[in-house]
Design a protein that fits this description.
Elements lengths: L2 H7 L9 H11 L6 E5 L5 H10 L4 E5 L3 H13 L6 E4 L12 E6 L8 H7 E11 L2 H13 L3 E7 L5 E3 L4 E3 L9 E6 L1
Parallel strand pairs: 1-2, 1-4, 2-3, 4-5
Antiparallel strand pairs: 5-9, 6-9, 7-8
Length: 190
């Protein structure tokens, strides 16, 4: 079953990172087969599942979730997506440390991503990406400043909007509504 079809079958709990934003994360980091990716803030597991499709058959996603109820939901969704071989959900707080080393990419879908910077820097391989996903300018600013103070290089911060087109016999134009601001995605390199 194709990834978009799989995502439609999953159970949503907390707010998810949308496909448009997940695609930007994979596009700017180059996540691919063989990569080791640490994801924090599993939530419903949508981002982990998206990335799990990219790292297989040789890579792995390790997703940290401090809330037991969200960790269980993410595990159920990973099983529905048949990606248990490639994705491990850990009921663990990333602010207490990252066990994995030589990590290619770390994604942080957390309200205080700056509090994970020290641990992320230790876990990342040289040239690896640290990615933060937050809804406000104040959050990404604080994250970037903490990263730069820690010796990590700010690569870029983006926002991604999507508007579908309405096609009719006499008029083609953008839809009135679309998936516009969902979050700011910040990319930092070691």
């Amino acid at each position: 079953m194709r990834l978009p079809d799989v995502l439609k079958r999953l159970v949503r709990g907390p707010q998810i990172i949308t496909l448009k934003d997940a695609a930007m994360i994979s596009a700017f980091t180059g996540i691919s087969s063989g990569d080791l990716v640490v994801d924090a803030g599993s939530g419903s597991g949508f981002l982990a599942i998206y990335m799990g499709n990219l790292v297989r058959p040789e890579g792995k996603i390790v997703s940290y979730e401090r809330r037991p109820d969200f960790a269980r939901l993410a595990e159920r969704n990973v099983k529905k997506a048949e990606l248990e071989k490639y994705i491990e959900i850990k009921n663990r707080d990333i602010f207490e440390g990252i066990v994995e080393k030589d990590v290619d990419v770390i994604t942080l879908d957390l309200p205080e991503p700056w509090d994970a910077v020290v641990h992320a820097k230790q876990a990342l391989k040289e040239g690896g990406f640290l990615v933060s996903y937050v809804p406000s300018v104040e959050q990404f600013r604080k994250f970037v400043l903490r990263c730069e103070k820690s010796g990590l290089r700010h690569d870029r911060t983006i926002e991604c909007g999507v508007r579908e087109m309405l096609v009719k016999e006499r008029s083609t134009r953008p839809q009135i509504k679309g998936i516009m601001h969902t979050g700011y995605i910040t990319f930092v390199r070691k």
